[in-house]
Amino acid sequence: MHKSLLMPIYSFERGVNESSRLLGLKGKGLVQMSAMKLPVPQGFIITTEVCEKFFEAGLRLPDGLMSEVKMAIKELEVQVGLKYGDPNDPLLVSVRSGSSISMPGVMATILNVGLNQENVVGLASKKKSKSFAWDCYRRFVHMLTQSVLDLDETVLLKVCGEPKVQDVNGLQNIVQSLKEVWKIKTGKAFPEDPYKQLELSINAVLKSWSSKQATDYRKFSGIPPEMANGTAVIIMRMVFGNLGSTSMSGIAFTRSPESGEKKLYGEYLINSQGEELVSGRSIPCSIEKLASEFPKVETRLRDIAKTLEEQLKQPQQIEFTVEENDLYILQTRPAEMSAVATVKSSVDLCHEGLIDKTTAISRIDPVALEQMIYPSIEQEAHVKPIALGIGASPGSACGIAVFDLMRAKEMAGVGEQIILVRDEVRPEDAYAFIFSAGVLTLRGGKTSHAIVVARGMGKPCVVGCSQIFRDLEGQNHSFRSQYVIKEGQKITIDGTTGKVYLGEIRSTSSKITKELMELLQWANNEKNIEIRGNADNPDDAALAKRYGAQGIGLCRTETMFAEQDMGNTFKKMILTDDINERKLMLLELNIHQKSVFLNILRQMQNLPVALRLLDAPLHEFLPREEDLISEIEGIMSRPGSDIQVGHEKKLELQRVRELKESNPMLGHRGVRVGISYPEIYESQINAICEAAAELKQNGIAVHPQILVPQVSMIQELKAIKGIFENVKKTVESKYKLRLNIEFGSMIEVVRSCLIADKISTCVDFISFGTNDLTQATFSFSREDAESKFLAAYINQKIISINPFQTIDGEGVGMLMKLATMYTRQTGKRVKIGICGEHGGDPASIDFFSELGLDYISTSPRRIPIAILSAAQSSIRKRLSSTVNSIT
């Protein structure tokens, strides 16, 4: 096979040492399978370098490329024993895309390239089937027309109608209609020259790299140019799954992509070509039927699946064609699987000896673990579904039924939850899943390209719901029962069972599997940083512990006043300016807080529990000034109004005005309240100490920590520490025991980062509050930034990330580095942690791990993500250290 350094072309046999970045994922898989001597149709690969040159040249094929392609075709002719363009028995080829990153179904594929008005007759004679030959020709003309002219498939279907495979006259009429569309759009006749067809097909595949579907997919999936720099073009001999009842096209997974179970999973469609199966337009057969209908094919396919897993060390998704009982493998790639399946298969492969624990840990996308805690329909709901389809992507979703792709995007843009409802979803529609909570289709199977994408995104999906028929005129979907779904109506889908419900149905979180628990145990042994949970109540604390938390890194005590009675008492306590009245009310609040602290500490036993003292601005607990004014006016305008009540409300209004602040988030909050009203912090600290003392007296070991928020000066911290020490001493005397309670400071004010060495002398631990620290560093509020301008900043590349999701390394990260360095330089053993939202973000966790923090705290349901991310960070660090030591 000819190979140019400028425009390399590789045969499947000769690219074994090249990377998937050069050959594309599909091309690399074909090369590997050829080396394994598996039944792969012969072919060659135009590398991704050509794609780069194509766009550099303004969407022109590089000079000399077609000469090289012709040389490669000549060698292919020798291998196959057929001649490309031959009038009697032509060699036909497929032209496919193949990026180095899996992008199922979003780029162009053209089949049966090389057919024309003359050799379609020869093909019909050779294969003894006119309907077969014209079906191939129809498919080719359709695909080339759609790809080159960039036409929507629905437009072509309206022009040409749905094909009937056995109707030769009908197929010929469709071909003629398509050619007329070509001539109208281009002003030229449809190309009959096989090499011109090949050139146009290569051009169309390369151009599809920049299509809207492809660019949207890469953007949503976070695939930057350095990860995937273009698509390869794979040209391979056609094998025909549409050659009668002993031929078929199919998709097979070596393990179930839903559960990870070790069994063949997939579908096949008799007398079809591949694009018909993956398009979702037909309802295929389950692969489970293959053993009884085509036992030799099933046995051979099972053997190939075993070989691929043993050689490639991970579950594979296989595209195959059977031509008159002969099996061919057209593609293999790492299987797109649900998180449940990925975890189970990785753990199982480790037990089978194919991979080690480090590989199993490294293979899981931490963010995908959220899928394992996806909601599912509660069995107790006892709500009858209105239809049953095929569950294709697990989890449940509720939203407004929307039929139109653009409308779905618009509605999702204003915060609506959308269920996309379609007759079928074509591969090019997959980008619309970005805007949808879930997907419901009337036709299609669960291995179509679009559904594979949905599963990879973790979008619940129900397909093949044939009980639904669509009324295009009325724009509604009618169920054969009395139910009708209109666009805009709320529905619920269950992608696990395939059930569809009217309205919103209660859901519950999925259970953690034993494989995930085992994987997390392996990850716990690998990570070098503690993972704790944020929990404001006993239920969250229990959930955090269940998910593997090594303590509670943040308990927001102000949330304990959310109950109406407690909230009213707290409001009255703030509004009164009589300190004695305030202390009486604090005694009542103390009893409630102590009860909550007892339950949380009991849940966590001897694990650390950081209880943050009141942080929220006082105005959050007070009535609004305008509401009070309106209430007073209403009272005073009524005949026989209660003068006393009106007077009390006026005093309340006066107090609200006294406490009013221009910028409350930067004003009277956190430690400043504790210094202005020391009795508030004294009451909270007393509740913590008494709860700890009671538990210790009952033989329950606990480890409470007191966390002071919004510290910017060491004098603030010393003032609160004085209160803490006095209260602790009093409680110890009362209960006649010693308490082990640590004292700590939040680091969330820029100034506190710069005086961290001084703060460290006064505390046992510090905790970065990255939410407030990010706001302070950028000098904008999270709510305003995310709702008004942050998206524009990211789109215009003014900023590369949302700093409230992933830590800003240059700014916030630099402050954290300084604070950590200053703290460590004191020589005092002070534990350093972080309890902001960034604690559940894998990229941020990598930064925190490199920084050498002692612990991370995150919301309970993100604890598995944090554990896995921390382990992967530790593994990368160890491997990097090993490489550096060798070099």
Structural description of this entry:
The two termini are 36 Å apart. The longest helix is centred in the C-terminal third of the chain and has 26 residues, at 579-604. The protein is 46% helix and 17% strand. The chain is built from 32 helices and 33 strands. Helix 5 packs parallel to helix 7 (168-186) and helix 24 packs across helix 25 (714-735). The protein is α/β, with parallel strands linked by helices and 887 residues long. An eight-stranded mixed sheet has the order 14-24-23-16-17-18-19-15, covered by helices on one side.
Task: Give the topology, please.
Blueprint: E1 9-11, H1 20-35, E2 43-46, H2 48-56, H3 65-80, E3 83-84, E4 90-91, E5 93-99, E6 109-113, H4 119-127, H5 130-149, H6 153-160, H7 168-186, H8 194-207, H9 212-221, E7 231-237, E8 248-253, E9 265-270, H10 274-278, E10 285-286, H11 290-293, H12 295-312, E11 316-323, E12 326-334, H13 339-351, H14 357-363, E13 375-377, E14 387-388, E15 390-393, E16 396-402, H15 405-413, E17 418-422, E18 438-441, H16 449-457, E19 461-463, E20 468-471, E21 476-479, E22 484-486, E23 490-494, E24 499-502, E25 507-509, H17 514-526, E26 530-534, H18 538-546, E27 552-556, H19 564-575, H20 579-604, E28 608-612, H21 625-637, H22 643-659, H23 671-676, H24 678-697, E29 703-708, H25 714-735, E30 742-747, H26 750-754, H27 756-760, E31 765-768, H28 770-778, H29 782-795, H30 812-825, E32 831-834, H31 842-851, E33 855-858, H32 863-886
Parallel strand pairs: 3-4, 16-17, 17-18, 18-19, 26-27, 26-33, 27-28, 28-29, 29-30, 30-31, 31-32, 32-33
Antiparallel strand pairs: 1-2, 2-7, 5-6, 5-7, 8-9, 8-11, 9-10, 11-12, 13-25, 14-24, 15-19, 16-23, 20-21, 21-22, 23-24
Helix pairs in contact: 4-5, 5-7, 13-14, 13-17, 14-17, 17-32, 18-20, 19-20, 20-24, 21-22, 24-25, 31-32
